[in-house]
Sequence to fold (335 residues):
Amino acid sequence: MEENLAKKRLYSAVQPTNALTIGNYIGAINNMVALQDEYDCTYAIANMHAITVRQQPAQLRANTLSVLALYLACGLDPQKCTLYVQSHVPCHAELAWVLNTFTYVGEMERMTQFKDKSAKHADNINMGLMDYPVLMAADILLYKADVVPVGIDQRQHLEICRDIAVRFNNVYSPTFTVPEGIYPKVGAKIADLSDPAKKMSKSSENPAGTIFMNDGRDAIIKKFRRAVTDSDGEVRYDPENKPGISNLLSIYTVFTGKSVAQAEAEFAGRGYGDFKSAVAETVADALAPVQAEQARLLADKGYLDSVLAEGARRAYKTASSTLAKVYRKIGFYQL
Ligand code: TRP
Fold:
């Protein structure tokens, strides 16, 4: 499959850090699979972003394949979309350097995620951490993305990407496509089971509130059983007053395809215990085949490598043509 001119271009990426959670699945992967027919999709495994926080080399390497295998197991089709590893396409670092000269230090210092991560990793506030949004802008702009599906937490990064693109286009001439963010509605933020005020995060200090995509049945059931709820005993969607139950309802409806009203009716007059068990069983049943397929794929490294090699080839083709255009516009002498 080469460039499809009829379809809009979509770009997104995930960092190969930690195990992914059902929050990632509901908020991102699910969406990526749903979008692959409608858009010309490119999905990166963002290992260059990952190293802005110290990583174990062996872990980073292993997670790269494990994310790929998970994506494929969830239904991403390498015939339909481009799946590649960010560091396999050198244009990302190259464009990021150019874009750095269109980005102000002050605006990077004000980024919410930079401030959060600086607080969390106070011993390693490296330049890459501050530059993270610029590298992300380079990712998106290289592929002339029209749309970028991301979680709400990435909205500020997408906005700065748009600002940088417009700034460059104004100084030179229209060069970059200015991307639109698309944000998931349902499950935009699946909450932590033990603290429904917090987002379920793969980097949470508290694995009891987080369902990982590779959690076994027993762990899943145990975690749901301990999920924080409330004392009124009614299974009703009310995120304001009943954040725990509403969160479980969101999870349940995503995995069953039922509406909130259907789910509420199903559990009317039944206790929270019943409801939690049903959610747990549903999630465990849904994850089991995905986990089996992921394991099967991980045993076939030859196949995974071939997917990444083809992905890198296609990605490079688009990225290098954008980069050449940028180099021309800024006056880099070309041979
Ligand atoms: N920063 C994103 C995240 O942590 C990952 C990412 C890197 C990304 N490059 C991107 C997402 C480009 C969208 C587009 O979720």
About this structure: The chain has 13 helices and seven strands. The beta strands are 9-14, 40-45, 82-85, 147-149, 180-182, 191-192, 195-199. The longest strand covers residues 9-14.
